[in-house]
Amino acid sequence: MMSKLVVSPWARRVVVIAVALLLALGVVGTIRFVTGAQAAPAGANGAPSASRSAGAAAPADPSADQSGGAPGATQDPPGKAGRSAGVGGSLGVGGSAGVGGSARAGAPAHGLPPIGKPAAAPVPLTSTAGPVAGLRVELAAISAVTATAHGPGDIAGPAVAVTVRIRNDSGRAVSLAQTDVSAYFAGAIPASPVSGDARVKALANVVNAGTSTTAGYVFRVPADQRDSFTVTVLVDPASPAVIFTGKGPAG
């Protein structure tokens, strides 16, 4: 006859503790496995892992300029930089000279401002130019003055007064309603007009055949920046601009 197995309370406690430890270890192992499996895709789709990026080097870009330029950049051929220069580099003038001769804006003319429109070949400040046959434009007077401010935006100070004369020998009346006169100094810096100065005289809307008309303008130009002074006269948008350039008046 088999005897009944008797387990003491102390032995039961030991068994329960052992089973609890085994279950706890199993749960911890399962958590680590699941956590590691979820972290792996993040490393693949996100930033590269340290083991892959440490030894990997970015492939060289064959189009990179060996002189230090950005990848894919190309070098301009000699002379192109001067043609593509902006303010202070080039002006939309040049090409053919003479009455009615014009060139596309952007043609090289070193040291003159880019006026952004077709222009006749530049002439000295003391010359006469014809944007179209029968029409003559000249700067009748250029002088150093001290501008007086009276209108909105006017600034008093050293300036240059310019008198523009337009002679019409075309045999018909010519509209001057859209005529624009601008000035630049130090190569390409736009000179601010002083509209309220007493020397300013508005241009007539029309110059009749066989007559001439004059207009007065005052532009703010620093006294020490007049070695290069330019005046542009655009009679109308359909005609090339006339460009007068040279050394401005001292004082």
Question: Which key phrases capture this entry?
Answer:
five-stranded mixed beta sheet, 3 helices, alpha+beta, 251 residues, five-stranded antiparallel beta sheet
Structure overview:
- By secondary structure, the protein is α+β, with helices and mostly antiparallel strands.
- The protein is built from three helices and twelve strands, in the order H-H-H-E-E-E-E-E-E-E-E-E-E-E-E.
- The strands form three sheets. It has a five-stranded mixed beta sheet with strand order 1-12-11-6-7, with no helix packed on it. Strands 2-3-4-10-8 form a five-stranded antiparallel beta sheet, with no helix packed on it. A two-stranded antiparallel sheet has the order 5-9.
- It is rod-shaped, with a radius of gyration of 41 Å.
- It starts with 8 loop residues before the first helix and ends in a 5-residue tail after the last strand.
- Residues 40-110 have low confidence and may be disordered.
Strand content: 25-35%
> How many beta strands in the DSSP annotation?
12
Order of helices and strands: HHHEEEEEEEEEEEE
Estimate the global geometry from the Cα principal axes: rod-shaped
Report the total helices: 3
What ranges have pLDDT less than 50 throughout 5 or more consecutive residues? 40-110
Main sheet: strand order: 1-12-11-6-7
Please outline the major beta sheet.
Answer: 5 strands, mixed
Helix % is 10-25%
Q: What does the average pLDDT come to? A: 73
Which structural class is indicated by helix and strand composition? alpha+beta
Q: Tell me the span between the first and last alpha carbons.
A: 137 Å
Please compute the radius of gyration using only Cα atoms. Answer: 41 Å
